[in-house]
Design brief:
CATH superfamily: Gcn5-related N-acetyltransferase (GNAT)
Radius of gyration: 17 Å
CATH class: Alpha Beta
Helix content: 25-40%
Shape: globular
Order of helices and strands: EEHHHEEEHEHEEH
Number of strands: 8
Strand content: 15-25%
CATH topology: Aminopeptidase
Length: 205
């Protein structure tokens, strides 16, 4: 029997985001083994994982919108097109997000739409002071997405994988983007109170 579909955690104009279930294993497997997606996070040939392993990982996931796989679904036809993640704030008040879309759904501004939803959820449901993302410096689309939602580049860094993983990974040179609570709330207020010609770019696609 198929697993029950989880209710949406949040919705946007075109999308709904819900927690993943084991039935979403084929989607996650397609993303995690797709070189065009995973090269940006240090796996140039995709993640070395089986479909069964993915299903087991989803079956044992934490039952929470935070620190678990979330599935991105098109409202129009119910098609799952990607995954995202949001974590609870750390001791410094900074939460993390991540968005991955299947290549067939790139260049449709879906990533920006999801990222706005993640930001709004985190700033509404947690006390985080900022939300951080670490796009690969070569992933221009992801960098544009961070900037489109008001992200500020704080610098760059290089992530090195543990030695046991270095035969199938590459170091990740990434930027560090943050959206701060006060800037997000100010932009949201401006969007809600201004006429369209003066609306904040953060909320206009």
């Amino acid at each position: 029997m198929p697993d029950p579909i989880a209710p949406p955690i949040f919705e946007t104009e075109r999308l709904l985001v819900r927690q993943a279930t084991p039935d979403d294993a084929p989607l996650c497997y397609a993303l995690w083994t797709e070189p065009r997606v995973m090269v940006n996070v240090g796996f140039p040939k995709g993640l070395p994982i089986t479909l069964a392993e993915v299903k087991e990982k989803l079956a044992t996931a934490v039952d929470s919108p935070f620190a678990s796989q979330l599935v991105i679904v098109l409202k129009a036809d119910g098609q799952a097109v990607g995954e995202c993640f949001m974590g609870l704030p750390n001791d410094e008040g900074i939460a993390q997000t991540d968005v991955k879309l299947l290549p067939d759904y790139w260049r449709r501004k879906l990533g920006v739409e999801v990222k706005r939803g993640l930001l709004d959820y985190l700033f509404t449901h947690t006390d985080c002071t900022a939300v951080e993302a670490t796009p690969n410096v070569n992933n221009i689309a992801s960098i544009k997405m961070q900037e489109r939602v008001g992200g500020v580049c704080m610098g760059t860094a290089v992530y090195e994988f543990p030695q046991a993983m270095q035969t199938y990974t590459t170091p990740v040179h990434h930027a560090i983007y943050r959206v701060y609570r006060e800037h997000w709330l100010a932009a949201k207020k401006e969007y809600q109170t201004s006429d369209f010609s003066k609306k904040s770019d953060v909320f206009v696609s």
